[in-house]
Amino acid sequence: MAYNNIIVETQGAVGLIRLNRPKALNALCQELTEEMTVALDAFEANDDIGAIVITGSDKAFAAGADIKEMQSKTYMDVYKNDFITATWERVARCRKPVIAAVAGYALGGGCELAMMCDFILAADNAQFGQPEIKLGTIPGAGGTQRLTRFVGKSKAMEMCLTGRMMDAEEAERSGLVSRIVPLDDLEDEALKVAAKIADLSRPVVMMCKESVNKAYETTLKEGIMFERRVFHSTFATEDQKEGMAAFAEKRSAAFKHQ
Ligand code: HXC
């Protein structure tokens, strides 16, 4: 399919989605989000893909939902269409691992999109923020919820109430991003990590992702029980047999993804 707002590539077993509206700092218009949904569906359906990277440009991951597209919408427009989360949640629903490689601005919906991914690698020039309050609205794609879970109430509240930005150092210190890498290395590093994950057992990677995500959605007791059951079920895979045999035989594992 031909895309107007994103560039989609595959590199080995990794699917790469590059947000590509440079003139609007990758503002997330409706068409862009729909294209991202189509690209994610295709990667999910493709057995040769084991991990996905979403990135933007050096200047902007995404400067938010498209303000010019939103400005004239009425309450009925947004309520009836469940604007805009219904489409966006596709990223959070992805079963394969998704890495956000963030350089430059990740603001509003851009920050929310990054937080829907499984982890965020940040370039040293990354800036995160939820500036919606300055536009007379609030985050609408999980910002008040996910940011609070990442960085705690005090910092999330300050960021959402003032709209101030957080640089890469502060984002790493607060647990929003997993690591900072130099801007020039960001994409290579993200692709390298994604390729490493894609080499592992794909069903077990999905099980692991589901288990970590459970920590955000349930009590500790329930989460631990969920983890144990999933741990048990890895013993039904051929890949667990292969992984442990390879260790015992001092060789690399050759996972068959089953
Ligand atoms: C539409 C945007 C945009 C956005 C930037 N542009 N952000 N267009 N929606 N979110 C456009 C500008 O209008 C401008 O187009 C061009 O991109 C370059 O932007 P500048 O402002 O000239 O660049 P700069 O001076 O470098 O400032 C960068 C910036 C600023 C600090 C990131 O652009 C900015 O504050 N953007 C808005 C950030 C924001 O408020 N995001 C939250 C959106 S609300 P022209 O044509 O003038 O050259 C949101 C709600 C989500 O995300 C709700 C759930 C989905």
TrEMBL record:
Q: Do you know which InterPro entries this protein is assigned to?
A: ClpP/crotonase-like_dom_sf, Enoyl-CoA_hyd/isom_CS, Enoyl-CoA_hydra/iso, Enoyl-CoA_hydra_C
Protein's UniProt keywords contain Lyase: yes
Q: Which UniProt keywords apply?
A: Lyase
One short Pfam family name for this protein? ECH_1
**UniProt keyword Lyase present:** yes
- Protein family (similarity comment): Belongs to the enoyl-CoA hydratase/isomerase family.
Q: Which PANTHER family match?
A: ENOYL-COA HYDRATASE, MITOCHONDRIAL, ENOYL-COA HYDRATASE-RELATED
Record protein name field: Enoyl-CoA hydratase
